[in-house]
Amino acid sequence: MKLIGSLTSPYVRKTLIVFTEKKIEVPLVVEDVWSKTSEITSSNPLGKVPCLVMDDGGAMFDSRVIVEYADTLSPVNKLIPPTGKDRAAVKTWEALADGIVDAALLVRLEPTWHPGNQASQPWIDRQLDKINHGLKAMSDGLNDHEWCFGNQMSLADIAVGCALGYLLFRFPNIKWQASYPNLDKLYQKLMKRPSFIQTNPPQ
């Protein structure tokens, strides 16, 4: 298998962290999906990363699909509960964290595609509201617990950590660490893990 992705994508980072925590070696093939010479559509018709290319040449895409598959490949460090409400709870955490990243990417892209006074400030403000509401929901959900769900690290914590890391990387003006010290405590704990250290985006 090989994973097609970029070094700065939080979705790719989430996927790499899961493979690392599962102790599964998957090489990363760096691809710039914005380049006119990109060949990503030969593996993913949507032109997005991450994309997992299988040994038989088939492809799997969307980080949520890939990490769910990865968790089935090894009994080491199970990250997603097998069934029921617990599984839905962890996946809901992932959806919340990914939703924050989705909104952040839209904020970042708006002035890129609509430079100068063409950028829609109401649209940007709407996405920033999503980020702020999402951060509060994550902080409230974590409360004073050690982990987002259960008594050990799960996919919920990985997704949250990747979302928080992306905000630090691209939106240092969003002072979530001061506003939500419990999220910062979790993030600092995650950043001691080799899987997070190795995938920290280049500055």
From TrEMBL:
Cellular component (GO) terms are: cytoplasm
Q: What residue stretches are annotated with the GST N-terminal domain?
A: 1-78
Return any one Pfam family short name: GST_C_2
The family database entries (SUPFAM superfamilies) matched by this protein are listed as: GST C-terminal domain-like, Thioredoxin-like
Which molecular-function annotation in GO is an example for this chain? transferase activity
Is Transferase set as a keyword in this record? Answer: yes
Task: Return the CDD domains for the record.
Answer: GST_C_6
Q: Where is the GST C-terminal domain?
A: 83-203
Q: Identify the InterPro entries for this entry.
A: EF-GSTs, Glutathione-S-Trfase_C-like, Glutathione-S-Trfase_C_sf, Glutathione_S-Trfase, Glutathione_S-Trfase_N, Thioredoxin-like_sf
Q: Per the record's keyword annotation, is Transferase included, yes or no? A: yes
Going by the UniProt record, its keywords in alphabetical order are: Transferase
Q: Name one GO biological process term.
A: translational elongation
- PANTHER family listed in its UniProt record: ELONGATION FACTOR 1-GAMMA
Q: What is this protein called?
A: Glutathione S-transferase
